[in-house]
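Below is how a single chain appears once it has passed through the pipeline. First comes the sequence as given, then the structure the pipeline wrote out for it. We keep one example in the README because the format questions we get most often are answered faster by looking than by reading.
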Amino acid sequence: MDRYTSKLSPGVDYSAGTFLLMIAILTILGNAAVLITAVRRHSVLKAPELLTVNLAVTDIGMALSMYPLSIASAFNHTWIGGDQSCLYYGLMGMIFSVASINTLVVMALVRYLVTGNPPKSGNRFQRRTICVLISVIWLYSLLWAVFPLLGWGGYGPEPYGLACSVDWAGYQHSLNGSSFIMALTILCTLIPCGFILFSYAGIAWKLHKAYQSIQIHESLPNTRTVERKVTLMGILISAGFIVSWTPYVTVSLWTMFHSGGKDSVAPIVSLLPCLFAKCSTVFNPFVYYIFRRSFRRELRQIWTCCVRRIAAGAPVLFVIMDIYSSKLSPAVDYGVGAFLLLIAILSFVGNLLVLVMTYKRSTQMKPPELLSVNLAVTDLGAAITMYPLAIASAWNHHWIGGDVTCVYYGLVGFFFGAASMMTLTIMAIVRFVVSSTLQSAKEKISKRNARMLVAGSWLYALMWALFPLIGWGKYGPEPFGLSCTLAWRDMKDHSQSFVITMFLMNLVIPAVIIISCYSGIALKLYVTYKSMHDINRMPNMIKMQRRLMLIAVLISVGFIASWTPYGIVSLWSIYRPGDSIPPEVSMLPCLFAKTSTVYNPFIYYTFSKTFKQEVNQLGRLCGISKMHHASPSKNFPENTIYLVCVENKEKQEAIKNRKAETQIMSF
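Resulting structure:
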């Protein structure tokens, strides 16, 4: 589309891409150093310092999830991916930017409450309190990022065409857009900045009054000097963020209120504030290096350690712990890695096909089908974010990355697993409601409601994934050493309530709901079939309902059956001695659970004629284009995805049935 073509010259595009590449490298290296030093001293890390870690996570998350796409688009002179990648880019930008500014707000408030009090009073902020605040920050950010997906506001390309953000120009087009932008500006920009300014002004006043009152004391000046240095560091971090984003917000507000909208600002003028805003992810590590001796000391130790290891020919791993060494033989490790590679490829290709087919027929897609898309996203997300690390660790015969990657792997696994289970539960309920009559699914559930259900499943999964970070539950390595999940053994004494609640809310109750719904559907179909008087009119619809129910049942059974052995072994490990399960036995259920991301595309291909025809059509386009061109075009309507190769009345009947299938279909 024309709006995704760069409005800049190729020379400016290459310069912008080079600048973003430099920013990305500095951001990743600097914030990775912050995270590594935090891991090395995690046992002595104060609770408020977790906010600094969270700020580094937001910066490095933005660099990893956004900058590669914008760099590639700049060098390509056209935005890559169209509407879908634009939506993704705007969503990521919203999540990380809102999370960053709210982290700065909490940091400022914590500093205000701590400053001027005796040193031990900092203990009022326990780790659990700070973790709760961090969780609230991410949930708040996710909420604002999801609003445009639910219909309040929207995302769109920047005026220069090589980035995406909130559709600021939508302020002039509708009350929906203007209300969203005004609420976003007030709640996510003006009020947070006000809190930051007033907090640090209050801190400065406290330090000024304290400095005047310590003339007769000898032991206090050192404490005040430390507080002043910490306050100055916080002010510089906040000022760096606010100053970086102020030009961008100013230009965006200009496009909101100017009658010309996006066209009122020259492309090069809209580019410069956007690039300057990206610099906000770079500043913080430099501020830490200048004002924190401990950070400088840690970096020197890491550098010395790296140089020594490289000189000795050893791998550069900062912390090697026995719990992350493989308990399996090298041959078994290589076999596990090869198996996971196969699963990753099948999962990636299969679920990508589902998403491609969905994109091809996005204009015809019915609301319940969003649940099938969401299920493909969860499976594809697990394959992309988890399997590469597990494969590399298996072939390395040692878990790579230590505690940080272990927590990441466990969190992502729990997140996508819970999202999948909730999606299957919602699918079962929707299928039950839709099958109550032979009406269109669209009459039962709107696209807005479907999006809200999808967003609810992700928020529910995120909530459960964050509980172990707050202190309710814990992530840790598997017994065989090459994977991470919930630390079942460690939770035996401290978090049994979490284990019981988690199993009930994420396995037992959803499984009961799924079984009840599909049993009810089967009973309805049986009663309907028995009560039919005119057998010649209803069989096609009944067969269609039965086939769609079979698809949904197989998907649910595949997921639950894959994870049940793992759940049983995990419960066994809680209530039995740690060495009661050999490493090989604990490994097999884990591998079997990974296969849950593979089944669904094969089920669709086997039982869904529409999906099979779409895949076959794609195969003809990609591999047998000559045969495709040789076939008469009249047999393949241009605007339909569901191609039916039958004639006359049979063809019309088949098309009619296919339309009916898409109306009640949620895979």
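The radius of gyration is 28 Å.

See the next section for the split statistics.
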